[in-house]
Structures are given as C-alpha cells and as structure tokens.
Design a protein that fits this description.
extended, alpha+beta, 147 residues, four-stranded antiparallel sheet
Length: 147
C-alpha cells in the first residue's frame, strides 16, 4: 500500500465513480410528474479478519429511583456524567469480579428508557485473565439468525 492509497479522496474523485441515472415518474393518478436521480457507488465490503484482543460490551440496567424522578422531572437536575459517576464504583466492582477492565479508548454509553436506564461499557480482559466466551467477528455478529 502506497502513500497515495492512504490519502483521502477528493469529492471529484468520489463522484466520478458514482453511477447516476435520471428518471421521471408520476404519482398514483398519473398526474404531477417528478424527476429524480438514482445514484450507486462502488463499495468494498468491510471484512473483519477476527484478529486482535477480544472486546466485550457489558450492559447494566438500573431502575429509575421514583423519589429522585419526583424531584428531577426528566432527569433535568443531573447530567449523564454525574449519573455515570454515581454508579461508577459499583460498575467497576462488577467488571473486576468478572476479570474485566474498561476500555478507556471507548466512552461509556447511557441509554434512557421509560422507567429504567442502561449503561453500556466496552471492556477487555484483565492481564492474566482468559475470556471463556467464543469471540465473534463483525460478519458473524451481523449475520441474520436462521430460524
């Protein structure tokens, strides 16, 4: 791979490879024609070679405290960072018990539902701990499950 391959493409280079096709169609009654353009770009599929250290995503679910919700409608009185900080010691302990440490290159994610919220943390195995789960690469994970 040369340095030229690593350089980002300009807009002109990207658009010259796009296949465009103009079309005209009408609504259901056959009136009011409208014009459009169909575009298709060449793409290279993303292939995950399945090498490297396994990454684990841990999800923790918490019920919203009713007393806290009465005082802070819609969690207006607290930021996501403060909410995460309130749970951090418990999360860290739970991960440690499973032989995991958080991957600091990926920020945790907080997802709010109606009566509960989820905290997702990307983790990796602690030094000297073996992951028993069978790792899956991206293609295996995204493949539809057969019924």
């Amino acid at each position: 791979m040369t340095d030229e391959d690593l350089k980002p493409k300009t807009a002109d280079e990207v658009f010259k490879d796009i296949k465009k096709e103009d079309f005209v169609t009408t609504d259901k009654e056959g009136k009011d024609p409208w014009h459009g353009t169909s575009m298709q770009a060449e793409s290279t599929p993303l292939v995950d070679p399945g090498v490297g250290n396994p990454t684990i995503v841990r999800t923790f679910m918490f019920a919203a405290n009713p007393e806290f919700l009465k005082k802070n409608k819609g969690l207006r009185g607290i930021s996501k960072q403060e909410l995460f900080n309130n749970h951090w010691k418990l999360l860290e302990l739970e991960l440690w018990k499973d032989g995991l440490i958080p991957d600091e290159s990926v920020s945790p994610k907080i997802i709010f539902k109606r009566k509960h919220y989820l905290i997702q943390i990307v983790c990796k195995a602690r030094l000297g701990v073996f992951v028993v789960d069978n790792p899956r690469n991206l293609q295996d994970y995204m493949r539809p499950k057969s019924a």
